[in-house]
Design goal:
The structure holds 2 protein chains of 2 kinds.
Chain A (H helix, E strand, L loop, with lengths): L3 E7 L2 E7 L5 H8 L18 E4 L2 E4 L12 E3 L12 H8 L9 H14 L5 H7 L11 H17 L7 H5 L1
Parallel strand pairs in A: 1-5
Antiparallel strand pairs in A: 1-2, 3-4, 3-5
Chain B lengths: L24 H5 L15 E7 L5 E7 L1 H5 L3 E6 H5 L5 E3 L5 E3 L5 E2 L5 E7 L2 H10 L1 E6 L6 H4 L19 E8 L1 H9 L3 E12 L8 E7 L4 E6 L4 H14 L9 E4 L15 H13 L3 E4 L2 H7 L2 E13 L5 E11 L30 E7 L6 E3 L7 H19 L3 H8 L8 E2 L5 E2 L4 H12 L1 H13 L3 E10 L11 E2 L2 E2 L2 E7 L5 E5 L8 H13 L6 E4 L17 H28 L6 E4 L2 E4 L2 E7 H10 L10 E6 L8 E10 L6 E11 L6 H20 L31 E4 L17 H18 L13 H10 L4
Parallel strand pairs in B: 1-14, 12-13, 15-18, 16-17, 25-26, 32-33
Antiparallel strand pairs in B: 1-7, 2-6, 2-8, 3-7, 4-5, 9-17, 10-15, 11-12, 11-14, 15-16, 19-20, 21-31, 22-23, 24-25, 24-30, 27-28, 28-29, 31-32
The chains are: A alpha+beta, B alpha+beta.
Chain lengths: ~170, ~800
């Protein structure tokens, strides 16, 4: 089996692996790097459960090959909290009952972080459009919208970027 | 009428009525949940499935030779291999049988044909691609009416000689003669064909398992996505015994871990689970099987698929006098529904709904076709959604036909609050309700009169606006053991509570959570009953080695049945605590009273022992003659079902150019009895509404004449995104269940049941003046545009 060596930064830590060229990024993250917070919910890029940040941009990791992420900086849900301190989006999803089964939640939070990075003060319509690539079957989205609104407020209050270094990396 | 459950505990204790933040969330928001595909065991192998491209075909041969050359592929398992162990067929929960793998004939597209076991996920998929199957296509029957026609090919010749027909069963309920008489003598008689299409729950996590047979310990551990782990364990034990395998129930452990949504789709046993068990048994290593989304949508059990013909009679003044319903139920090639065994059509005869019908007659025929097994729930209790849709559509059609406002007609025909408990003409006893109050609250909330005025003005301008009502009654909490069982297992449920010496609590329940929040709400029930703070109570479930036996979570039965068991188990502990307190206080147990988590001497409130004091004493200072410890278990057999209800009002605007239906407002007033956690109840209703909205406007599984699934991926099977989904408006009335220990009724599915007819009624209301009587769901832009085009509007 032909393999290719890839190295990347995942949640600030250097990682490397020898992978089949066809290996999906989501499988590299889950099966090789054992970061199972990123989920798989479909096979057509519709559900967004696998959403992560690649070089500061939101990406569906089931739609990228691991080799395409060679040299990239990746952030997953496991990299959102600062130790015991939850990211404002994580805190807001908890406070506002923005999750039920929790399966779409990591992808939803990663997409919401990207959304707030692009638009720090989104309207409800902009939030709904911004997460329309992420399917949730449990919540009806009402409390997810509220969660993102709460997080936007919390981030504005402390004058922080949604994800440290996200905008910089994107630039 | 009340609108809130009164608070008996402080926020710190967090009993009933408090919006306690969920105890399970910290792991989920950090990506630390443990779903089935996250599980990796040492030496684990992967299993993937070869599926049929044909809906009906004989298998001329299976050539595995190329697959076995694929690096990493260890084995290819076929039906012939399983036949040697008697494992090529398995029982369904409805008492029918279903192939694990076929030995000669495939019966639906995407049916499992062979299994490939390999050392990696990718190698298994490569192996699947390399298996060559030689099919000889056969005639395909996708239309259940054709399946019942004269001379139709018999799809299931394996059935008994007297069952050589595609009719699976015929079921009826109510009084046919009375209903016929009502129709014959009616001042007003309406009838309508209403099709409730085949849909799929599509939980965002698909199904999967890791089967782990330990040949030395003779222990099978099955980690799986199941809503009913105990029932699965028993079925496995029975199947193994039938096949003569050395796998016995004490050595079978089913563990569910975290489950990414269930909605009924994770109740059945799918061939993939059995194949993983068989592969692990044969190879002696753990074997993982995880469905792709396409497999999930194309092969797993489906919901609905009810072809309903309804007739209703009434007086000219609008008093309903009778109901008659005939239904063809398409079950696919096997009856794999999870209905209680006495109810092959589920609880469909609750179809008289919220109305005071003097008579009713319902008949249903189950039919085989060349489709995947159907008839499981889609977030509802055993066919109640089909029933509610039909009756709420019919009531609306009647109102429009006689020129009466649909709200007024409902008010005049509701079962009134003083009529409860109410005996329906099909044999149910509704526990409690206040239907006029819920509808009135919905009308007040949305300004119904104002909307009707606006609608008249818009119609005069040629704009299409509709207002739809649904005043539904659910039937949940199965169920009383005299009537309710699945494969003979009575539908009780259970809770075991252990109070530790330091006043902390471990409780285990016979039901399961797939996102409902049981770790929080069941702790709140115990907090309410015993006064322990909710943070001191840990809830466990989903491990058959530790949890008490229960029938699982579906049909909104967790709170009605296991919630009741939890309250009763807590009360047993409270009673033992009373005797412990009497010993500690040197008082008579009869002289003690319970308030706020403590037993105190009547008239001397300073003489008390807290539940924490008592817990310590149970292990350190219990009186002679009393067992040490503070534990209780309860297996609760509910005396009746519970009947949640509500009234929903939906406002739609229709785009005349595109036919698109836009839900402008949707007010949902729900009554689920006493409320354990208002935040979670609202969340359940939001989600339920969205899973009612989805089939009303978007979702349908369709087939072509050859049985090809045309909606087998998320590209074609349209789950609503945040853009389409309305901003739901919710409200409550509270009418406690009189027979439930905490007065609760269950809520997880109410909105999925109640929402579709509110939306359909709104659309038809917008188009009635054009001569439109009914549009079957999903009401797609194409359907509406075709109507507008035909009427010369678009």
């Amino acid at each position: 089996m032909m393999t290719k060596h890839v190295s990347m930064t995942v949640n600030g830590e250097p990682k490397e692996a020898d992978v089949e060229p066809r290996l999906l990024l989501v499988h590299l993250l889950r099966d090789v790097f054992e970061l199972t917070g990123t989920h798989i919910g479909c096979d057509t890029s519709n559900c967004g459960a696998c959403t992560v940040h690649v070089n500061g941009q939101s990406a569906k990791s089931c739609t990228m090959l691991a080799v395409q992420a060679d040299g990239a900086s990746i952030r997953t849900i496991e990299g959102m909290a600062d130790g015991a301190t939850l990211h404002p989006l994580q805190q807001a999803f908890w406070d506002q009952h923005g999750l039920q089964c929790g399966f779409c939640t990591p992808g939803m939070i990663m997409q919401a972080a990207w959304l707030l990075d692009q638009n720090a003060d989104p309207t409800e319509e902009e939030i709904r459009a911004g997460i329309s690539g992420n399917l949730c079957r449990c919540t009806g989205y009402v409390n997810i919208v509220k969660s993102i609104q709460q997080a936007a407020g919390a981030l504005a209050e402390r004058g922080a970027a949604p994800v440290d270094g996200l905008a910089v990396a994107a630039g | 009428m009340t609108t809130e459950t009164p608070l008996q505990t402080t926020p710190e204790v967090g009993g009933m009525g408090h919006s306690v933040k969920r105890k399970e969330d910290p792991r989920f928001i950090r990506g630390q949940g443990e779903y089935i595909d996250d599980l990796v065991l040492p030496g684990m192998l992967w299993l993937d499935i070869v599926r049929s491209p044909y809906a009906h075909a004989t298998i001329q041969g299976i050539d595995s030779s190329e697959a076995l050359k694929v690096p990493g592929v260890l084995a290819v398992v076929t039906g012939k291999d399983l036949e040697g162990y008697g494992l090529h067929w398995m029982p369904t929960l409805a008492g029918d049988k279903q192939m694990v793998l076929p030995t000669d004939t495939v019966m639906y597209q995407s049916q499992d044909v062979a299994a490939v076991v390999a050392t990696s996920r990718y190698a298994a998929a490569d192996g699947v691609a390399a298996v060559l199957v030689d099919y000889e296509p056969l005639e395909v029957i996708v239309d259940p009416f054709k399946a019942l026609g004269d001379g139709a090919m018999v799809l299931r010749p394996d059935r008994a000689p007297d069952k050589q027909t595609n009719r699976i069963w015929h079921w009826e309920s109510g009084d046919k003669d009375k209903a016929d008489a009502a129709m014959a003598s009616a001042e007003v008689h309406i009838e309508e064909d209403i099709y409730i299409p085949r849909i799929h729950v599509a939980s965002i996590e698909t199904c999967g398992c890791v089967a782990d047979w330990d040949p030395v310990r003779q222990q099978l551990t099955l980690h799986m996505t199941s809503q009913a782990p105990h029932a699965i364990r028993t079925v496995l034990a029975l199947v193994a015994a039938g096949a003569g395998l050395p796998i016995t129930e004490q050595n079978i452990r089913v563990k569910t871990h975290d489950i990414g949504g269930g909605f009924g789709g994770k109740v059945p046993v799918y061939p993939g689970y059995v194949l993983a068990v068989a592969a692990s048994f044969l190879i002696g290593k753990p074997v993982k099987w995880i469905e792709d989304r396409s497999e999930n949508l194309q092969a797993d059990s489906f919901a609905r698929d009810y072809h309903i013909h309804a007739e209703m009679s009434a007086t000219k003044a609008g008093k309903i006098t009778g109901l008659k319903v005939r239904t063809i139920a398409d079950h696919g090639y096997s009856d794999a529904a999870a209905d209680p065994s006495k109810f092959p059509a589920g609880l469909f005869n609750v179809i008289t709904g919220s109305y005071d019908f003097p008579n009713a007659f319902v008949e249903v025929d189950g039919v085989y076709t060349n489709k995947p097994p159907g008839g499981v729930a889609y977030r509802c209790s055993f066919r109640v959604t089909e029933a509610v849709h039909a009756i709420e559509r019919m009531v609306d059609i009647l109102a429009h036909d006689i020129g009466k406002d649909p709200a007024q007609l409902r008010m005049e025909n509701f079962i009134q609050p003083e009529q409860f408990p109410y005996a329906t003409p099909t044999g149910w006893s509704y526990d409690s309700g206040n239907y006029p109050a819920a509808l009135q609250k919905a009308m007040d909330t949305i300004d119904y009169a104002g909307l009707r005025k606006e609608q008249a003005e818009k119609r005069a301008r040629g704009e299409l606006m509709g207002i739809g009502i649904s005043s539904f009654t659910e039937i949940v909490g199965a169920g009383p053991s005299h009537d309710f069982d699945i494969l003979g297992l009575k539908m009780f449920d259970s809770c075991e509570i252990r109070v530790h010496p330091t006043g902390k609590v471990l409780a285990r329940i016979g039901v399961q959570t797939q996102g409902q929040g049981h770790e929080t709400t069941f702790a709140q029930i115990i907090a309410e009953e015993l006064g322990f703070p909710v943070g001191d109570i840990k809830i466990e479930y989903g491990d058959t080695d530790t949890a008490p036996y229960g029938l699982g979570t579906y049909a909104s039965r967790s709170t009605p049945v296991a919630g009741a068991a939890t309250a009763v188990a807590a009360r047993k502990i409270k009673e033992k605590a009373r005797h412990l307190a009497a010993h500690l206080l040197e008082a008579s147990a009869d002289d003690l009273e319970w308030t706020n988590g403590r037993w105190s001497v009547k008239g001397s409130p300073d003489r008390f022992k807290t539940i924490q004091d008592i817990a310590f004493a149970a292990y350190t200072n219990h009186p002679a003659g009393m067992e040490a410890g503070l534990e209780a278990v309860d297996y609760y057999d509910p005396p009746n079902l519970t009947f949640p209800f509500g009234s929903y009002i939906c406002v739609v605007d229709i785009d005349k150019g595109t036919g698109e239906v836009k839900v402008r407002r949707f007010v949902a007033i729900d009554d689920c009895g006493n409320i354990i956690n208002p935040m979670i109840v609202d969340g359940q209703i939001h989600g339920g509404l969205t899973m009612g909205f989805a089939p009303a406007l978007y979702e349908q599984i369709t087939y072509d004449d050859n049985g090809n699934n045309l909606t087998g991926t998320f590209m074609d099977y349209l789950l609503p995104t945040a853009i389409e989904t309305p901003a739901w408006e919710t409200g409550k009335t509270v009418t406690p269940s009189p027979h439930h220990p905490i007065g609760a009724k269950g809520v997880g599915e109410s909105a999925t049941v109640g929402a579709p007819p509110a939306i359909a009624n709104a659309v038809v209301d917008a188009l009635w003046h054009l001569g439109v009587r009914n549009i079957d769901i999903p009401i797609t832009p194409q359907k509406v545009w075709a109507i507008l085009h035909e009427k010369g509007i678009s």
